[in-house]
Amino acid sequence: MAYDKFNILKSSAVPLPIENVDTDQIIPARFLKATERVGFGDNLFRDWRYNQDNTVKVDFPLNDSKYSGSILVGGKNFGSGSSREHAAWAVYDYGFRCVVSSFFADIFRNNCLNVGVLPVQISPEFLEEIFTAINENPETKLIVDLPSQTISLEGTNSSESFDINSYKKENMLNGFDDIDYLMNIKDQIGEFAKNTPL
Amino acid sequence: MSNTLFDKVWDSHVVQKIEGGPDVLFIDRHLVHEVTSPVAFLGLKNRGAKVMSPERTFATADHNTPTINQHLPVADPLSANQLKALEENAAEHGISYWGLGHEKNGIVHVVGPEYGITQPGATIVCGDSHTSTHGAFGAIAFGIGTSEVEMVLSTQCIMQPKPKSMRITVNGSLSKGVTPKDVALFIISQLSTSGATGYFVEYAGDVFKSLSMEGRMTVCNLSIEMGARGGIIAPDEKTFEYIKGREFTPKGAAWDKAMDYWSTLETDADAVFDKEYTFDGSAIEPMITYGTNPGMGMGITNGIPTAESLDGGVSTYKKSLDYMGYKEGDSMIGKKIDFVFLGSCTNGRIEDFRAFTEIIEGRKKADHVTAWLVPGSHKVLNAIKEEGLLDKLEEAGFELREPGCSACLAMNDDKIPAGKYAVSTSNRNFEGRQGPGSRTLLASPTVAAAAAVMGVVTDPRSLV
Fold first, then answer.
1. Contacts of B382 (CB under 8 A, 6+ apart)
2. Span B404-429, mean pLDDT?
3. What is the pTM of this model?
4. Is residue A182 situated within a structural domain?
5. Is residue B160 within 8 Å of residue A181, measured between CB atoms?
6. Which residues contact A74 (CB under 8 A, 6 or more apart)?
7. Sequence-separated (6 or more) residues with CB below 8 Å from residue B419
8. Domain extent for A186
């Protein structure tokens, strides 16, 4: 599915200094009943944002008006558990274009890259520095530069480079997805299939 | 050139290598269920594309189905709509569909092996992280997202960087009362939920060789819970014996040809893994989890670890114990429980029901415990009846439900109420996983059975 191109993103960020955030927290299973990809942002972190009587949990960072922006900064091992792409859809639909953490679960990372959310993995030390900076000043901006593969804290010398494979980088820069690529080599795949028994 | 089993299967399925990018990997078998497929079919429709290989694609309804009164229309309109979408999509694209009430219906990772869809040396994907289950047969099997489901539907390929390799060897023999589930929970407790992220794991050693195919499936199923994309076990006589004669396995000359290939599927003696772990099987106890991720497990007779004794985030650890209502140093033995869930793609097979029945036979379910016993498939359900297990279960005060994923992810009405404790044979104890506010203790069918009859967490070795 098409998504917005990603180039340089400069934004304040929402901090979520919790480790092992699993995809059941990002989007609980009871919200996976849709047959279209709409409205998942409403239920992002549903049970951390709302009490069971649907009142707002005011101390949760997404409900705290001092935090805003299109970057989510999470603790290590972000996105573990279920393969539900709905988690990445919910992140995107809520308005985040980038998730920063010191470690990502595999399937969640792949899913993000496939739907236009950039996962940026940084060192644990830089992650701490970012949490501290946001804590001191919630309007602190991060600059995520995909062409040069760097992430920096505005107004400081703090910066790190991050990894992304060159194929996925091209996709993100241009808003392409893998299916476009695969469709273009379908003849080659067809030949391979012929030689592969059921 | 020495190769691992994983290398052999992966490399033989690479259609194209992209410089600086992923491999284009050909997929032999694609399993589809109602929750992660509708948006993929919609994408296909929007592109005007058709399913490339309907004969390699199999659909079943499991995640979002009721486990009682399956003969009645599904009451929840959203769930009914999702089931209808899969039925229509399967019909439109000529895909086999085993819907609710179909004799072959069941959890996708239970029915795949039952009907011989799962075979050694194959690449198998499904929009579900527990697809790793099928690695028990020497297949490369892993979970994918919905965009990838659409890729496989339209091109029978997926784009993946090749994972790194890890081998986990468990030697020795298991003590009485210790099951495959305990072995897996033990390994995850040692590696943590991210310890194998980026790796594909081969399980080797005496313990896995000695396990039944059901037991191997339980172990491979849980690979994802330590972050691994999948787990694989070299096929052997037990594997071939299990799959022979099943509906979708090759027959006659095709079987012989397949066997020629399958018998080459093992790691070469001098192959090198990126990472290796070795454990002693005889040191493993019956396990139970006390926290909110599957890495927070321990031998059932131990005390809950203190935050200071662990690496990593103290605040996350304390938040987790707060959620569970437990304290550092607490013993798990004797903790009161409210629910027992036997089932799921992890422990919903016939062997799991045999293990559970062995403990409860001649005893009674504790009055305050609600037990949900959910077979993984109709085939399992029928075997429970035919083997006489149902009579024993009923005599002890248990009821059997109809097949499905049920309370493992609680998408249907099988939800553990807020604040209640459930001993579950499923795979995840995340906050709210089994219902908003629910508290899950992951364990084997044997430990679950002991809790069901005693009403508190109990060492099953005291009951045998």
1. none
2. 98
3. 0.97
4. yes
5. no
6. A16, A17, A18, A21, A99, A100, A101
7. B325, B437, B438, B439
8. 8-194
Interface test with B, best of A25, A57, A80, A91 (most B CBs within 10 A): A80
Residue among B16, B316, B431 whose CB faces A19 most closely? B316
Number of compact structural domains in chain A: 1
With respect to CATH, is domain B164-236+266-283 assigned 3.40.1060.10?
A: yes
Q: Which of B157, B199, B229, B322 to mutate to test the interface with A (most CBs of A within 10 A)?
A: B157
Q: What is the pLDDT of residue A1?
A: 63
Q: What is the interface pTM, i.e. ipTM, of the complex?
A: 0.96
Q: What is the 3-state secondary structure (H, E, C) of B36-96?
A: CCHHHHHHHHHHCCCCCCHHHEEEECCCCCCCCCCCCCCCCHHHHHHHHHHHHHHHHHCCE
Whether B201 contacts B173, CB under 8 Å: no
Angle (CA) B51-B55-B56 rounded to 5° is: 80
Give Cα separations from B394 to B358, B361, B362 (angstroms): 13, 10, 11
What is the per-residue burial (b if ≥16 Cβ within 10 Å, else e) of B134-168?
Answer: bbbbbbbbbbbbbbbbbbbbbbbbbbbeebbbbbb
Q: Hey, is B380 helix, strand or coil?
A: helix
| Cβ neighbour number for residue A45 with a 10 Å cutoff | 22
Query: What is the second-level CATH architecture of the domain B287-462?
Result: 2-Layer Sandwich (3.30)
Cross-chain Cβ contact A47/B146 below 8 Å: no
Q: Which residues of B touch A22 (CB under 8 A)?
A: 293, 428, 430
Residue A1 lies in a domain: no
Q: What are the residue boundaries of the structural domains of chain B, listed by start?
A: 6-160+237-260, 164-236+266-283, 287-462
Q: Could you give the angle at which helices A166-174 and A106-115 cross, rounded to 10 degrees? A: 40
Query: Exposed, middle or buried: residue A151 (CB in 10 Å: 0-12, 13-18, 19+)?
Result: buried
Class of the domain covering B6-160+237-260: alpha beta
Beta bridge partners of B331: B303
Torsion region of A113: left, alpha or beta (phi above 0 gives left; psi -120 to 50 gives alpha)? alpha
For residue A128, give the CATH number of its domain: 3.20.19.10
Using an 8 Å CB-CB cutoff, list chain B residues near A20.
193-194, 293, 316
Write out the DSSP string of A121-177: E--HHHHHHHHHHHHH-TT-EEEEETTTTEEEETTSS-EEE----HHHHHHHHHT--
How deeply is A53 buried, as exposed, middle or buried, from its count of CB atoms within 10 A (0-12, 13-18, 19+)? Answer: exposed
Confidence at residue A3, expressed as pLDDT on a 0 to 100 scale: 85
Residue A185 has its nearest CB partner, among B24, B85, B410, at: B24
pLDDT of residue B313: 81
Q: What is the pLDDT of residues B301-319, one digit of tens each?
A: 999 999 988 877 898 999 9
